[in-house]
Design brief:
This protein has 9 helices and 13 strands. By secondary structure, it is of the alpha/beta class. A hairpin with a 2-residue loop joins strand 8 and strand 9. The chain is globular, with a radius of gyration of 17 Å. Bound molecules: zinc ion (ZN). Zinc ion binds next to loops.
Amino acid sequence: MSSASYEIYAIKYGERMGSRGGMFVYGDPHDAPVAMDYFVWAIRNSERTIVIDVGYGREEGERRGRTFLRSPDEGLRLVGIEASEVEDVIITHMHYDHAGNLALFPNARFHLQDEEVAYVTGRAMTHKVLRSSYAIDDVVEMVRLTHGERVVFHAGDEEIAPGISVHHIPGHTRGLQSVRVASQRGPVVLASDAAHYYENVEKETPFAVLENMYLMLEGFRKLRKLAPSDAHVVPGHDPAVLERYPAPSAELEGIVARLDLAPQA
Ligand SMILES: [Zn+2]
């Protein structure tokens, strides 16, 4: 067993308002507004720094009606990380809000599941509904990076560094991966979009953007199996994350949360 342990940061870069009816399948019959936050994550110790997802760019986000609060590289700088120096970036899946700023990381290798790359370059993308959350420029860029030997492929569940493992959890997309990180409070599971909201996991209600509902539902259970408790599962888009976890400093309240510290609620 490795004794590696990391600081874990959720960094908000965007937001939008949506509706429950547009987000939850078989959810509350009474429609109501619901906020969505957009994050990138970073994990760090004295040995290494790894960034998880790169967010959308201003143009793509605003085209889709999302608010762009700060470029993800500016967000990372708030916790002392220079995007241009990062050597490893895990891309949980290729959706526009997770893979839209690859060029901000000119020295990084990008870690992806085999199945995600096959999915975004294959027959599934002939379906408008399935391709609508991808930006073609991100997909083309990832193909270029693959040919440039800057993509590291993973198949299923793998440890990629001491105390850091990726876990294939399809359902939202075919090749989505969540990330488990060793921390001072035990392993923390960064679900990314294997669970958009706490509610998805707690009530097993599917999110409305999906590739396979059955696998998404199985994924909620897998997240719980990977974590020592529900308080160790961090959803990918829930504004409650910034309320439950402490900020690293008063100035970063509402922007950055420390996920390696115990949640307060
Ligand atoms: Zn997302």
